[in-house]
Amino acid sequence: MGEDELALLNQSINEFGDKFRNRLDDNHSQVLGLRDAFKDSMKAFSEKMSLKLKEEERMTEMILEYKNQLCKQNKLIQEKKENVLKMIAEVKGKEQESEELTAKIQELKEEYARKRETISTANKANEERLKGLQKSADLYRDYLGLEIRKIHGNKLQFIFTSIDPKN
Q1: pLDDT tens across 18-55, in order?
Q2: Whole-angstrom Cα distance, residue 75 to residue 79?
Q3: For residue 141, what are the contacts with CB-CB under 8 A and spacing of at least 6?
Q4: What is the C-alpha separation between 102 and 108, in angstroms, rounded?
Q5: How far is CA 142 from CA 149, 159, 161, in A?
Q6: Less Cβ around it within 10 Å: N or C end of the chain?
Q7: Which parts of the chain are coiled coil (predicted)?
């Protein structure tokens, strides 16, 4: 029985070895399959990440481009804002100047009205005086026979036309 047991043990060991090798081959095949699947998934993942990276780079470029455009637009807006503020300041200055000129014109109108009133009053007084002088001149001419003439050099000549030799 020793040999039978040994043969049985040997057979058992061989069966175990065959099972172990089969399982090892199966495991090795599974590992190779998993390795190939891992390589494929890593390749797909790598391609996917490469696409994502390219997309992110493109997005980054777009963001930088938009940022540059925004900076340019902000500069333009700032320049336009400064121009508008300058224009507003100019308009306010012109409005103030206009108000000052309007006030000056009103002041000149009032001064003109006062001077016109003064001149009108002086003219009326001169007319009254002239009427009085004309009346006096007419009286002297009609009743006394006195004529007053203006001669060269701003001199007056008195001519008596009704001299009575008896007086």
Answers
A1: 888 888 888 888 888 889 999 999 999 999 999 999 99
A2: 6
A3: 147
A4: 10
A5: 15, 13, 10
A6: C
A7: 77-125
